[in-house]
């Protein structure tokens, strides 16, 4: 049975509408454009302006500095002694590098669409302090992440950029920045110097957010800042050293979401040879909470430049430096006054005087009042800085409904279960259900398997009942095994320990600390590889009609894992290149695309997860053997997507999987490998299912496409309804992107399997 025309028409409508929606997100303006201020402050910079060293530490999470066991002693001593100011910075969605750099240099809030264009950065035209300094005859030097060069290709008088996407390198990528420090600190040829260190972020992506190497990298960054500050103090030249993180890092080492670990970053300022008006702190508990665009406003004020009219930043030096210019302070206040007027924000200043509480018109009080009001205006601007493309969403939703109706023509209604799964879409209206969607699919899948067993058990021949019962039981056991594989890594278990109740039976827990399978096989990779190889070779005989050839092809990627375990990275890179090339003639000669895809997937899977995906393959085989209904099969496909740790948050995307076997950054190859790992669960499940019941695949794909289209429609509907919701960019928008991706994957599967 071939997939009929409704599937292809629905696929075309989905792809066409996807292009429209992605274009709409990409073209969203990150900040509302306002009219130019009537008062124009010309940048007439004096020759004696202070210098600036701006250091960005990629993935510099706030707790890396504030934890009591932090190795950043120079940072902490400087803050506690009053030599530096520390702030609790908020990096808003999306928490990826490119939009956060834009926020640092322009003071605006980049749109959600910049998440999509993060890997294809283009030159920005927005007013920013780097371009302004260049136009005023200042020399700006840069070393680090090449994203800056793509954003500002002609603004730096001297630069040396490093590739930001090759996450396996966390040593040379920072050494290439540090090697310029001695000459730059002694030369004095620069007015502003920007350093962007990537090593911390790369350790997180490649080794995880709990890697012991993180501590060494933090200590390295602390030593570098100590070296910079001490050298600048010797020069006696007024200089500001500003250090900040572009985004944070989850316990898994990734980022992109809106959790505190991803969005709270430290911002530390050293005003070299200047006095503080601020009292030194004795703890990090009450750090002033600021916005990331405040860094831009701070740099504009340092050089005495007027902030851009669309900047939402508030200078961090206001009220904190004794010798601060009153003109700079006045500019900041008037800037927010103009912003409030242009955006219709009223009730700017309110003073309440009573007999019991007389008015206080002292300078500190008025200064604090105005600062608090500016912060209130800033919060309102941030909350409304990017709007949902409502018209495009309406058009997209209409096209999606049409695609669902057409797709429905291709599969036959069999039972109430066929439509019961659509009820799950009600959960899209609750943000917590979206964040924990994997739990819903786990429960629904297990329930549907049991319903299938109870419904069909009596109709099976008596001599086959034991076999069916055993297969169903094994299927449920494998389901539970896969669920538990990454359950301890989920968001709800990554809570602050202070929020959790005290543990009971501490001594018993300490004595019976049994690691989960994921941890065990991560610590015992050779055992994982040996067991996985034996089982894979045993099950691959059922894949195709030529078991010897299939088993031989499966050995290729498994041997690659052995090379990696022994540290032969360079040889492994060449070996995998040969494997990829070999798959082309193998496919052309045999036509066995499932073996080719399986080989590619096995390449990118971490060694400690090989057994997990063996279990998923067996689940596909068992689902086919017990003739599971398409509703339960579709639910199992969705469950397998979450087994490896995926969720509806971009933070769970494992970037390191895209660089397996690569010694350099190849965007297309990285994208393919990242896609294969992200969807490894569904791919391997379908291969297992396909090897036994390939005739039902067309109808299953048609049904599953309809389910995914309906789910996508409800996601779009929720995004439209909750476009002013607090979690519109952190929960609802990523959900739409994931549902779009799911639909595209079903279309690709239809092309390959038919």
List the defining traits of the structure above.
8-stranded mixed beta sheet; 8 strands; alpha/beta; 754 residues
Structure write-up:
This protein is α/β, with parallel strands linked by helices and 754 residues long. Among the domains are: 53-321, Alkaline Phosphatase, subunit A; 460-494 and 519-692, no CATH class. The chain has helices at residues 5-26, 62-66, 73-80, 97-106, 129-135, 147-151, 172-178, 181-187, 199-207, 213-235, 260-263, 294-302, 326-342, 363-383, 390-408, 417-420, 431-435, 437-456, 462-485, 506-511, 517-523, 525-539, 547-565, 569-590, 593-604, 610-625, 630-643, 667-678, 680-690, 697-721, 728-753; strands at residues 51-57, 85-90, 140-145, 158-162, 192-197, 239-244, 264-272, 288-291. An 8-stranded mixed beta sheet has the order 4-3-5-1-6-7-2-8, sandwiched between helices. The model is unreliable at 30-42 and 508-514 (pLDDT under 50).
Architecture of the domain at 53-321 in CATH? 3-Layer(aba) Sandwich
Summed up, the helix count is 31
Largest sheet: 8 strands, mixed
Kindly, what is the distance between the CA atoms of the first and last residues, rounded to a whole number of angstroms?
9 Å
Approximate shape: globular
Spatial order of the strands forming the largest sheet = 4-3-5-1-6-7-2-8
Number of strands: 8
- State the share of residues found in helices, binned by percent: 40-55%
Specify the oligomeric state.
Answer: single chain
Q: Which band does the percent of strand residues land in?
A: 5-15%
* Highest-level CATH class of the domain at 53-321: Alpha Beta
Global Rg: 29 Å
**CATH homologous superfamily classification of the domain at 53-321:** Alkaline Phosphatase, subunit A
CATH topology of the domain at 53-321: Alkaline Phosphatase, subunit A
Low-pLDDT segments, ≥5 res: 30-42, 508-514
* Mean pLDDT across every amino acid position: 78
Structural class: alpha/beta
Protein name: GPI ethanolamine phosphate transferase 2 C-terminal domain-containing protein
GO molecular function, one term: CP2 mannose-ethanolamine phosphotransferase activity
Pathway: Glycolipid biosynthesis; glycosylphosphatidylinositol-anchor biosynthesis
Membrane topology: Multi-pass membrane protein
């Amino acid at each position: 049975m071939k997939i009929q025309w409704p599937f292809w028409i629905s696929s075309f409508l989905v792809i066409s509408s996807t292009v429209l929606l992605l274009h709409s997100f990409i073209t969203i303006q990150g900040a509302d454009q306002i009219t130019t201020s009537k008062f124009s402050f010309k940048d007439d910079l004096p020759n004696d302006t202070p210098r600036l060293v701006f250091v960005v530490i990629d993935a510099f999470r706030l707790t890396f500095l504030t934890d009591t066991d932090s190795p950043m002693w120079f940072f902490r001593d400087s803050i506690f002694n009053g030599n530096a100011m520390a702030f609790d910075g908020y990096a808003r969605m999306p928490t990826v590098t490119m939009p956060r750099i834009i926020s640092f240099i322009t003071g605006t809030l980049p749109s959600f669409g910049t998440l999509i264009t993060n890997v294809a950065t283009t030159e920005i035209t927005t007013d920013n302090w780097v371009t302004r300094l260049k136009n005023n005859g200042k020399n700006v030097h840069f070393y680090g992440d090449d994203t800056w060069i793509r954003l500002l290709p002609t603004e730096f008088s001297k630069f040396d950029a490093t590739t930001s996407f090759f996450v396996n390198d966390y040593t040379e990528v920072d050494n290439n920045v540090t090697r310029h420090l001695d000459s730059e600190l002694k030369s004095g040829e620069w007015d502003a110097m920007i350093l962007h260190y990537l090593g911390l972020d790369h350790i997180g992506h490649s080794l995880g957010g709990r890697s012991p190497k993180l501590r060494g990298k933090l200590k390295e960054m602390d030593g570098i800042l100590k070296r910079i500050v001490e050298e600048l103090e010797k020069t006696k030249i007024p200089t500001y050293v500003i250090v900040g993180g572009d985004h944070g890092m989850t316990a898994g080492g990734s980022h992109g979401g809106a959790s505190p670990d991803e969005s709270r970053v430290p911002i530390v300022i050293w005003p070299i040879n200047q006095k503080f008006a601020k009292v030194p702190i004795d703890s990090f508990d009450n750090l002033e909470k600021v916005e990331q665009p405040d860094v831009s406003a701070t740099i504009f004020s340092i050089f005495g430049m007027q902030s851009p009219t669309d900047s939402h930043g508030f200078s961090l030096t206001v009220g904190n430096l004794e010798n601060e210019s009153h003109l700079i302070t006045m500019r900041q206040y008037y800037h927010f006054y103009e912003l409030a007027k242009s955006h219709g924000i009223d009730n700017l200043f309110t003073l309440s005087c009573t007999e019991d509480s007389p008015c206080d018109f002292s300078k500190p009080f008025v200064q604090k009042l105005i600062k608090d009001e500016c912060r209130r205006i800033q919060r309102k601007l941030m909350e409304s800085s990017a709007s949902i493309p409502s018209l495009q969403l309406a058009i997209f939703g209409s096209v999606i409904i049409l695609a669902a109706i057409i797709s429905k023509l291709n599969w036959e209604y069999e039972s109430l279960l066929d439509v019961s799964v659509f009820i799950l879409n009600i959960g899209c209206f609750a943000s917590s259900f979206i964040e924990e969607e994997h739990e819903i699919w786990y429960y629904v899948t297990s329930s549907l398997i049991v319903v299938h067993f109870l419904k069909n058990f009596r109709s099976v021949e008596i001599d086959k009942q034991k076999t069916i019962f055993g297969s169903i039981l094994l299927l449920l056991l494998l389901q539970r095994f896969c669920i538990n594989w990454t359950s301890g890594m989920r968001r709800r278990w990554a809570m602050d320990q202070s929020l959790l109740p005290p543990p009971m039976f501490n001594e018993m827990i300490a004595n019976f600390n049994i690691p989960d399978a994921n941890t065990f096989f991560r610590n015992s990779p050779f055992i994982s590889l040996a067991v996985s190889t034996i089982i894979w070779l045993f099950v691959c005989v059922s894949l195709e009609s030529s078991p010897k050839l299939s088993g031989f092809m499966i050995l290729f990627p498994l041997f690659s894992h052995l090379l990696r375990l022994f540290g032969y990275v360079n040889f492994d890179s060449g070996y995998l290149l040969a494997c990829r090339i070999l798959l082309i003639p193998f496919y052309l000669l045999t036509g066995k695309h499932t073996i080719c895809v399986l080989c590619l997937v096995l390449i990118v899977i971490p060694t400690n997860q090989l057994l997990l995906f063996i279990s998923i393959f067996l689940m596909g085989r068992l689902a086919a053997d017990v003739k599971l209904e398409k509703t339960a099969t579709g639910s199992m496909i969705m469950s397998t997507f979450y087994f490896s740790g995926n969720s509806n948050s971009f933070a769970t995307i494992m970037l390191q999987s895209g660089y397996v076997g690569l010694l350099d950054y190849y965007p297309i190859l990285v994208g393919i490998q990242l896609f294969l790992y992200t969807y490894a669960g569904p791919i391997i499940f379908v291969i297992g299912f396909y090897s036994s019941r390939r005739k039902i695949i067309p109808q299953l794909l048609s049904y599953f496409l309809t389910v995914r289209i309906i789910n996508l429609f409800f996601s779009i509907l929720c995004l439209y309804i909750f476009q002013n919701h607090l979690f519109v960019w952190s929960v609802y928008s990523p959900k739409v992107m994931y549902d779009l991706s799911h639909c595209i994957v079903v279309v690709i599967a239809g092309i390959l399997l038919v």
